[in-house]
Amino acid sequence: MALDPSKYSDHIIILGRVSDDIAQAALREYGAENVIQSRFGTYPNGEANFELFVDGKLDDHPLEQHFSDDEKAEFESRISNGAYITIIHSMSGAGHVDRVNFQKKVRKIFANAANIIRLISNSDIDALRKALPRVLRMSNATSRAYSLKSGIWKLKQDGAGVISVIAPKWAFDRQDRRFRSKDGRDQYNSVTAGEFPDELRLAHPNGEAGADRFTVFDVHSNDSYNLIRKAATLDLPKIRALQQPIARLITKLKRPGDEQTRASLLQQITLQSNRLLKDISIGRHGNVPVAQDQLDALRIQIAEEKYPDRDGWDDLSIEEHVSVVYSIMEHPEYGIKNDVFPDAEDAFEHVALSGLFARDIVKRFGKEGLETFLSTPKFSFGSPDGLNKLEDVAVARARDTRDQVYTYLGRQKYGDAFDLDKLLEGHDQKTFNMFFVEKQRMSPDQTQVLSSGGIAGEIAFVIDDIAASGGTQINAAIDLKNRGTKQVHAYVCHAELIDDDEAALEKMLSKQYDDNGRHEYLFDSITITDTVPSAREKYEALPENLKKRVNFISVKDEVLRAIAHDHERAAELGYLHTQKRQFQPTYTADVKFNCT
Fold first, then answer.
1. Are 166 and 91 in contact (CB under 8 A)?
2. Cβ contacts of 485 within 8 Å, gap of 6 or more
3. Are 445 and 405 within 8 A, CB to CB?
4. What three-state secondary structure class fits 237?
5. I need a labelling partner for 164 at 20 to 30 A (CA). Which of 59, 152, 257, 426 fits?
6. Nearest alpha carbon to residue 17 among 561, 536, 587, 539
7. Are 44 and 121 in contact (CB under 8 A)?
8. pLDDT for the residue numbered 217
9. Peptide bond into 377 cis (omega under 30)
């Protein structure tokens, strides 16, 4: 996308589906002149829609704006004159599809998933419900997610310059696990998990680009992290455009034809792919120029990694040859880059909520002091699984929460000179005061504990990213109680809290544990955030006797910090003429959670 810095003037914040706390915080910080209400969602018939000026028609939206026609015209003028836009929107995944519209919606949503289409064709609705319960629950998020894409396209068509997306709850984040197909290729168990980040970056058929930058909160796994980061860092519209001529030639090659025609097509494909490599090497597509020997070495390296059973580059088939070229195009260092934010640190940001959890734990339990926290086995931290994968994001999240608790307490006692690594010298830092659980998923909504390890402790903090039915957290808590833990406190980043039979949060809070005839609640407290906007509604619906054990934390400070980062980077890069806004978040996390 060719940018003219002289035309960028305003930073407009568009609020989609967010909690009241987040919306009101943005409004207070940036004012009604910069924050507008929108709708990214669905009509009753399931059709996705994007509406920029809602005028109070959206009952559950925290902003009640009633713009006049003149005010609407002013906003539209600012957008068409090159506004920098930050969209804040969360996809909850909570919502069920009625039987009548289910088949039509799934066909539309997963139009490229041939196996699902066949299942719909050959099965009745009840069988499909049983086979794909997660699809039912993700349908609401799916429609919102794809209406977000259409909204981005519409804004770009109307003249918006740069669009960044802040998603406290990323769509399809839990449907990202890779599996190995029979032909040896990596595939994902949801077509949307891999394609949604690409879809937001992809150009509209008329050539308008998609989103330029992503900020996401506590992703589910390394796979999620890498999928979003890759989409944000690469110029996907450009890559798709460059791939099209070669793709068309390969399609022709697969059709029946004489040897002369095939030889001609092979020659054209080779010429096209070599031309792409040359263009990449000289920096023609926005990347840093690459020396030919570096490019040749990279080509050989990728070929060996992708096809270890082949005897070098010359032994590759034409499709494999082209696949290597495409991999070079998408290489994070040498490949095509995002024109607006060429550096990964600018194009993509991952916000960890472990700092919020750590601060809350220190506030509630910090009176025990640093020495008490470090005395085994008083306190322990862990996730509902991870014993068989100690490098998993879930374990890293729990470990990071532990480290930040110690850092907060240590700095309170010793000041900024406190050194966590020095404190933990002589301990296995990966397992110190940690518990581990190995679980097996029986179905999309059912898990069971297979084995346990680590230190259960007298007081355990179960740190998890998503609570849907609550079953995983319940199984982990039962395991901890069986191992002698006196108190279990759950901390959940994204409280989807959906369940077919009963309210998931109420089920978790009502669950009791039988301790030699003495019944007690399984969870002493459950802490949830407002990354999923409906979480507070579900909290409010609880019986009064259960509410007192729910601890509610808003992520508004982290959202405001992300907006401020957007604004300052846009100003530094010359996309804004307005003076930078100075914003200090309520707290600054001491340890950054990194997926690797």
1. no
2. 380, 456, 457, 458, 459, 460
3. no
4. helix
5. 59
6. 536
7. no
8. 93
9. yes
Measured between alpha carbons, how far is residue 327 from residues 235, 273, 323, 570 in Å?
13, 12, 6, 30
Give φ, ψ of 449 to 5 degrees: -85, 130
Kindly report the average pLDDT of the chain as a whole number: 79
Cα separation, 573 vs 346, whole angstroms:
11
DSSP 522-543: S-SEEEEESSSTTHHHHHHTS-
Cβ–Cβ under 8 Å, residues 381 and 433:
yes
The torsion angles phi and psi of 491, rounded to 5 degrees, stand at: -125, 120
| DSSP one-letter code for 579 | P
> Does 165 have pLDDT greater than 60?
yes
Cα 557 to the center of its chain, rounded Å: 18
Better-scored residue on pLDDT, 418 or 138 = 418
DSSP-based three-state secondary structure for 414 = helix
Ranges of beta strands (E only) in 52-138 are 84-88
Contacts of 26 (CB under 8 A, 6+ apart): 13, 15, 35, 88, 556, 559, 560, 563
In one-letter notation, the amino acid at residue 123 is S
From residue 112, alpha-carbon distances to 121, 125, 209, 243, 551 in Å are 14, 20, 22, 19, 41
Question: For residue 408, which of 588, 230, 191 has the smallest C-alpha distance?
Answer: 588
Q: What is the pLDDT of residue 595?
A: 41
Q: Please list the residues that pair with 216 across neighbouring strands.
A: 167, 350
User: Rounded to 5 degrees, what are φ and ψ at 68?
Assistant: -80, 170
Distance CA 160, CA 84 (A): 7
The per-residue pLDDT for range 178-201, each reduced to its tens digit, is 555 555 555 554 556 667 888 888
pTM over 0.90: no
How many angstroms separate the CA atoms of 137 and 160, rounded?
Answer: 33
Round to whole Å and give the CA distance between 12 and 15.
10
Q: In what order do the strands lie in the sheet with 162-167?
A: 35-37, 11-15, 84-88, 162-167, 213-217, 348-351
Kindly calculate the radius of gyration of the chain based on its CA atoms and give it in whole angstroms.
26
Q: What is the dihedral of CA 221, 226, 227, 232, to 10 degrees?
A: 130
